[in-house]
Every structure is written in C-alpha cells, then in structure tokens.
Amino acid sequence: MTSPKFLGAATTVRDKLKVTAAQRDRSGLDPVDEIGWLKDADLLGLFLPEEYGGAGATWSQVAEVVQTIAEADSSIGHVLLYHYFGSLAGTRAENGFVGAARARRIAGRRLFHGTVAQAAYPPLIRATQTPEGFRLNGSKPFTSGAAVADVLLVWTVFDDGTTLRGNDLSGQLATFHVERSSPGVSFGGDWDNIGQRLTVSGTTTLREVEVATTDLIGYGYGATETTAADHLDVLYMYAGFASIFTGIAVGALTEAAEYTRGRSRAWVESGKQRAGDDPLVLERYGQLWTQVQSAVALTTRANSALDDVRVQGASLTWSHRAEAVTLINAARVHASEVALTVASRLFEVTGARSTAAAEGLDRFWRNVRTLSLHDPLQHKQVQIGDYVLNGTEPTPGFYS
C-alpha cells in the first residue's frame, strides 16, 4: 500500500480535481493548473529510485496514486501514469548517456515528463547526425501530456550513416531527451476526442530540433539482445490502465451515490419517499458495487504481480514475465468492462435529471470508452486465451 504521506497527498489532489471536474472537462483546456497541483503535492518523484532523489516507491504504491487521481479525473491520472514510467528512462542500464542526470533533475526540480512515442508506427521522427550531435525532424500524433510537460522523451529512428562508439546504427530506434521549450518543438492543439479530453493527446512536431549526443537516452531497441527485465514499460502502461479504469469505476459509482442520496427523486410508482429506499435502486447499487470490487481485487493482484517481476531484476525469466503480462491484461480488460458498465448504468439509479450537461456524469463513460480503445482489447482476449489454452507466451514488444 502507498505510504500515508503520498496517499494523503493524492487524495487531496483528487478532491480538488473533483470539485471542478465537469467544468474542466467541458472547457477542454490544457491542464496546466492540474499539473501544478501534482507538483505542489510533491507527487512527481514518487517512482524514481532514492539514489536519484525520488521516493523509491513500489509499483503498487504508484498505481494506487494513479487510481486515486483517476477517480476524479482520468485524464490527469493518464498523463501522470506516463510521467511515472517515462521518467525512469535511462536509469535502467540503457546504453545512452543522459538518463541518471535527467532523473535527478526531474526529482529535484519537480519536472513533469512527457513522451513523443508511437515508436512502432511509421513515419518515425528522424535523427540525423551532425558534428554537434543530432537534428530531429518529424511529427507524431497521440502524444499524451507532451504539450504540458517540462521535459520530453522523443522516440526516433537514426538516419543512414549514423555511427556511435564505432558502430553503424543506421535505421535503429533511439530515444532522446528534449526540452519542451527547445526551438522547433511545436504542438498541434488538435486533440478533440469525446473523452480523456485533458490528456492533450494531440500532435507534436519537431523541426530542425538540435540535440547533443549526450542527450541520447538509449538506442538499439529491437536490434540488440535484451532480457525480460528490459521489457517492463508495457507492463507499467497496461497495469496503469487497469488502475485508471478501476479509478473511473470507483469514481463513477461514488458520484452516482452522492447524487442519488442528495438529489434523486423517488419514482412515483415505487411507493417510497426517497430514491434510496427503492428496492430496485438498492439492488442495482448492490450489483454495481460488487462489480467494482471485482475490478479492484483483480487490479490489485495484477499490480502486485508487477511488483514481483520488478524486484527480480536481471533474474526475471521470460516465462515469469509472460505470466505477469497475461494477468495484467486480464485486469485491464476486466476493469475496462466494469468501468463501461458502471459509467453507463449509473443513470438508471440517478434519474433523468442527472443527464443534464452541467452535471458532467457522462464524462466517466466518455473517458473509459476513449481509453479502452488505446489498443484493441479483443486482441488481448485472444492473447490471453492462447496463453491459457496453448501456453503461448505473448511476444514482447511495444504492445505486449
């Protein structure tokens, strides 16, 4: 469990987010103030190791913070999740240069990290070698959180003729540290989806952005031999998604119950004076609460499994990783289904007036529906089934 200090800080931020959640969702403004609240609460260094100035939290502790924030605003939970595992880049024995210094700076100055990723999809941002370092050019869509970050991690592909330490690295994937304020970095402001509106997941473009060789975080992804311990980022992301979905489910049910207790009217044919005395309303809340508890339990188990693989380090086996990623994906699929159900059916126990736009209760469904499409969950169900039935271990990659 999270230490009382961090959970208390996360709860304070959650409660502050909740007050204006519907209004901020409607406005769709970049969450500059919200990121400031996370900084003021000293939550940004939670996942960084103590030797870099962080709190050295376990993954379960980090996930509990993400879930708590997501109960009020899943957009902020989403970009916070990306900040947490992205800020570790370069601290795990990668072959680059800047990782440790970058982590210390993020922790010491409470900087917010953003990622310009989608490394698996072309066109990729090209890194062209220069006498001083590299020049970066290209655009990427769906760069969640980048527009409100202080520092960026940018996925690139080395141009032909790139050499480093005597090795030809042409065509290899690499990551660079880039200052958000660097000349040539721009943001499209083109995120206009129905949910997760405050993740600012629009386009990031780099035009002639100059970086030094010492800004290289790592390279050779997919081209050099790796161990199971080198493939944990996707586990962080998907276990984090399970925590966000669970947070949405908890938050939706909590707000629905507050509405029913304080504002719902009993149906005229129920024979009750209060909506909260209607046995049909009580039965529905019992169903939804039970479903939420199942999501909480499976997500907690998945996060504990990730704690277990983390501590194994270099001794982690591929088979143990496969077991963990299968459990994590099961939690993510289940939590998304529960969140969709709760976020949709809450209106059955709050009443017609609760559909008013000003109430903003629809944001829970819009958020979970949008995030659940991050990559097709039905493919994960097939992957889980293949593992259970045939023992097929998921092939490690950017999405498994």
From TrEMBL:
Gene3D superfamilies per UniProt: Acyl-CoA dehydrogenase/oxidase, N-terminal domain, Butyryl-CoA Dehydrogenase, subunit A, domain 2, Butyryl-CoA Dehydrogenase, subunit A, domain 3
Domain called Acyl-CoA dehydrogenase/oxidase N-terminal: residue spans: 11-83
Domain Acyl-CoA dehydrogenase C-terminal: 240-375
Keyword Oxidoreductase tagged: yes
SUPFAM superfamilies with a match to the protein in the record: Acyl-CoA dehydrogenase C-terminal domain-like (SSF47203), Acyl-CoA dehydrogenase NM domain-like (SSF56645)
Alphabetical keyword list: Oxidoreductase
Record keyword Oxidoreductase present: yes
Biological process, per Gene Ontology: L-leucine catabolic process
Gene Ontology molecular functions: 3-methylbutanoyl-CoA dehydrogenase activity; flavin adenine dinucleotide binding
Name of the molecule in the record: Acyl-Coa dehydrogenase type 2 domain-containing protein [Cyanothece sp. PCC 7822]
